[in-house]
Write a structure and sequence with these properties.
Helix content: 25-40%
Order of helices and strands: HHHEEEHEHEEEEEHEEEHEEHEHEH
Number of domains: 2
Strand content: 25-35%
CATH architecture of the largest domain: 3-Layer(aba) Sandwich
Radius of gyration: 24 Å
CATH superfamily of the largest domain: Zn peptidases
Shape: elongated
Largest sheet: 8 strands, mixed
Strand order of the largest sheet: 1-2-4-3-5-16-6-15
Structural class: alpha/beta
Length: 405
């Protein structure tokens, strides 16, 4: 059965490529997705599935009722783009200025639509039900997952699985990791208010830019000197803005940054230290510091039983040597919200291949991946639905020339 499902997905590969490239040419930003969810819903309805739209806002959920009793398995893909100018010189380059799919969400969406097509054509052979979660706004907290969950997308679901194409890993590999796989991602904004004046008379001012520079240095001591080196933590300041002229000391300085952790206790500690150090640094100079601290996505924690199962299925599919235990990533993902409600796992599929221009990191203007990664994502999803039958199957059955531009 599973071998037949794989063969059908291979046949659909050219259609998956067309779908992915159409999505890539027409990306939409988080919370502004209009055409993308409409396309997804239309495709799911054409397959005869039960479809809900505007789930949690802009999400789409499809339900396939199998012909045999069994579990209800949810499969998730995200479909929002990023505010990045696409600089690739390819026919499917983004046609929306300043917006592109720079993280592979178009790959995820096309792969899941392919899985829905395969299963809908064989629903009598499916044991249990399959819920297709097409999520909006993964890239921008608070994210679409929590809103979709609150709107009932996980009702009756027994297990949930999600995938992410990973450009830093070569095509043909699958990453299946235990426990924490992605970090909590929080953000902070600090506004320092001083007293501006002439650059030639600094003694008459309270220079917020100097205070801001000192604060950036002081904040770096939290992780380097106050956190156990055996604990994983990142504190990065991404921007500092102050002033407009060389001879004018400004009134204010703005600092923005991010914090990444796995441990909740450590997460709380770092927030507390940011507040304390900001207050002390500003007060020492006579300035005032105001902090806005935003708790972002929680860390993604894979459940043991489901992770063990996906690893077994991935090894059957790609071969043991091609299934890796990837180290935890400090990047964030709101798939964590699904895993807090329902057992499941989040896995990674290699998409790197310099031969097809897929050698750039995520969120890069030249980002791309080997499109055959859609087949691996789809086949792991199909294996999860089937539960696996011990079938050994080649991970690539599509014509390799199709993957090239």
């Amino acid at each position: 059965m599973l071998e037949e499902w794989f063969a059908r997905l291979d046949q659909l590969y050219p259609e998956l490529v067309n779908t992915r490239r159409d999505l890539h040419m027409h990306p939409e930003l988080s919370y502004h997705e209009v055409d993308t969810p409409k396309k997804v819903a239309d495709d799911l309805r054409a397959l005869g599935l039960e479809v809900r739209t505007e789930v949690g806002g802009r999400g789409v959920v499809g339900l396939l009722r199998g012909g045999k009793p069994g579990k209800t398995i949810a499969l998730r893909a995200d479909f929002d783009g990023l505010p990045i100018q696409d600089e690739k010189q390819v026919p499917y380059k983004s046609r929306t200025p300043g917006v592109m799919h720079a993280c592979g969400h178009d790959i995820h969406t096309a792969a899941l639509l392919g899985v829905a097509r395969v299963l809908s054509e064989r629903k009598e052979a499916v044991a249990g039900n399959v819920v297709f979660l097409h999520q909006f706004a993964e890239e921008m907290p608070p994210g679409g997952a929590i809103a979709m969950i609150e709107d009932g997308c996980l009702e009756g679901v027994d297990e949930v699985y999600g995938a992410h194409v990973w450009s830093s890993e070569p095509y043909g590999t699958i990453g299946v990791s235990d426990g924490y796989v992605m970090a909590a991602g929080d953000g902070f904004d600090i506004e320092i208010t001083g007293r501006g004046g002439h650059g030639a008379q600094p003694h008459l001012t309270i220079d917020p830019l100097v205070v801001g520079c000192q604060l950036v240095l002081n904040l770096q001591q939290i992780v380097s000197r106050q956190v156990n080196p055996l604990e994983a933590a990142v504190l990065s300041v991404g921007s500092i803005h102050s002033g407009l002229a060389a001879n004018v000391i400004p009134d204010s300085c703005r600092i923005n940054g991010t914090v990444r952790t796995f441990n909740q206790e450590l997460r709380t500690f770092i927030e507390r230290q940011i507040r304390q150090i900001t207050k002390a640094t500003c007060e020492a100079a006579g300035a005032v510091g105001t902090i806005s601290y935003r708790a972002g996505y929680d860390p993604v924690w894979n459940h043991p039983e489901q992770t063990k199962n996906i690893r077994r299925l991935a090894q059957q599919l790609a071969g043991t040597a091609n299934v890796k235990q990837l180290p935890p990533s400090m990047a964030g993902e709101d798939f964590s919200k699904y895993l807090q409600k329902v057992p499941g796992t989040f896995f990674f599929v290699g998409g790197g291949n310099p031969e097809v221009g897929a050698g750039y990191p995520h969120h890069h203007p030249l980002f791309d991946v080997d499109e055959r990664s859609m087949l691996l994502i789809g086949k792991v999803f199909l294996s999860a639905v089937a539960g696996g039958d011990g079938t050994e199957a080649a991970p690539v059955a599509a014509d390799s020339t199709v993957a090239k531009r």
